[in-house]
# Entry
Amino acid sequence: MEITSREYKVGLQAGRFGAIGETSTAAVAECWRDLAQILQEGGLPVQGAAKTTDPAKQRNLHFLDTRDLDLFGGRGLLFRLRRPIASKGDWSATLKFRHGDRLLADAEDFRPSGKGELKFEEDVKPVPGAMGASFWALFSRSAQAKVKSADDLRTLGDCLALFDDIGDLNLPSLETEVLAVGGNMIVEHVFEGLSIVFSDTVTAPCALILWWRDGEPKMPVAAEFSFRFELEEGRTNPKVARGAWRALRDVAASPWGDPLGATKTGFIYG
# Structure
């Protein structure tokens, strides 16, 4: 399956954003201003206007697995449920396999049982190296399906019935109970509006994502900055590749950056 897009992700200092509401919104605005200035001083134009988080991008989410994390630990699969906070409709159920080996990720063949979305993407994150900043790439195959009620997903079988062609599972009985991983029910706010201009044809939308534990709104547990672009143009344009690497490096080195902090997935499964 062909990789359609690349997303660059940088962990931010979650403690700088504070409580849900005016406190975090003001901090997000300050962060946008600082990062836009840093990017532009590095020769990367920024366009658009940062927006207050859209209600459709204020979401509840949690991950499901067995008590022994058989999906994640035994098969490398993540199962996530997400829905806008204001919605009473269907939940979006995502099954994802991520690995640093592109061939291994591509070998997966699962897909939604009914109508749904299928993606194959690359995520890039900065890591320190002996010769300076380097990066870590993960390849992700994900399938999305809809489920009317999260309460309907009580067992491994309930979760996996939403998808076909999962392959050799190496899992316990499909009757095994599933629970919210770590007991973590998450409130997610996604802030958007700004884009980085890498070339005449490649403009990468940015996002700033904050996570709080549900019921604990005073301090985020994770914060992340990201930008993405489609690979059709980006893979053949050296200007885009060099600019994207520079943006990743500069944001990671900024006063907001925390590239060694826990990733969102690392927080859930850590």
